[in-house]
Design a protein that fits this description.
Elements: H1 2-15, H2 23-49, H3 53-70, H4 78-90, H5 100-121, H6 134-158, H7 161-181
Length: 192
């Protein structure tokens, strides 16, 4: 990937000069962009093989939007990140066969757990690129809570257990990943 990014940056330099100071920033941004596009396309292609394109797309949207607001566990490699995202967005296909009576109880349990974990741990600030503004962290926390509640409300309005799994499971996994990544897991509560 680094070779591809260097080639693209060299091509861009012909048309718009990039200073030595900007080069690492542009390189990192381009690597992240390409990695994220490849991950998302890979997940959507797997969703198409499972004949659940729309559901996987919705799960990917829920997971990515929650991760944007809450932060959380970050893999050390792009492959690890892809596998976590793949699990969170496609694993609900295994749950669509659970009976509706049991499904509703599990949805409620997972939804309540997700909101409790988000209330307890969100946002988890990145060690690599931390957000220093307390107002941004508070806003991320507030929007994460609002989004979680909206996802739960939408899942109850959908009234289709198959579709609900693709809303609730990524939300639940975001909460679990928050808990796994928090340095204060046994200590004080998040102050945001």
């Amino acid at each position: 990937m680094e070779t591809l990014c260097k080639t693209i940056i060299e091509w861009c330099k012909k048309y718009e000069p990039i200073s030595n100071r900007e080069y690492p920033i542009v390189m990192y941004g381009l690597q992240m962009f390409i990695a994220n596009v490849v991950k998302m396309l890979g997940i959507l292609i797997i969703g198409a093989f499972l004949k659940r394109e729309l559901e996987v797309f919705v799960a990917l949207g829920v997971f990515c939007s929650m991760r944007y607001r809450t932060g959380g566990y970050h893999s050390k490699s792009h492959l690890g990140c892809f596998l976590i995202m793949l699990f969170c967005c496609t694993f609900p296909t295994a749950f669509v066969y659970i009976s509706s009576g049991l499904g509703n109880a599990i949805f409620i349990f997972m939804g309540i757990c997700a909101i409790m974990l988000i209330l307890r741990y969100a946002p988890v600030n990145s060690k690599i690129n931390p957000i220093k503004s307390e107002s941004i962290l508070k806003a991320n926390r507030r929007w994460a809570i609002i989004e979680s509640i909206l996802i739960l409300l939408i899942s109850f309005c959908v009234r289709n257990d198959e579709k609900c799994w693709f809303l609730i499971f990524p939300l639940f996994m975001d909460g679990v990943l928050l808990m796994m990544s928090n340095d204060n897991a046994g200590g004080e509560k998040n102050v945001y």
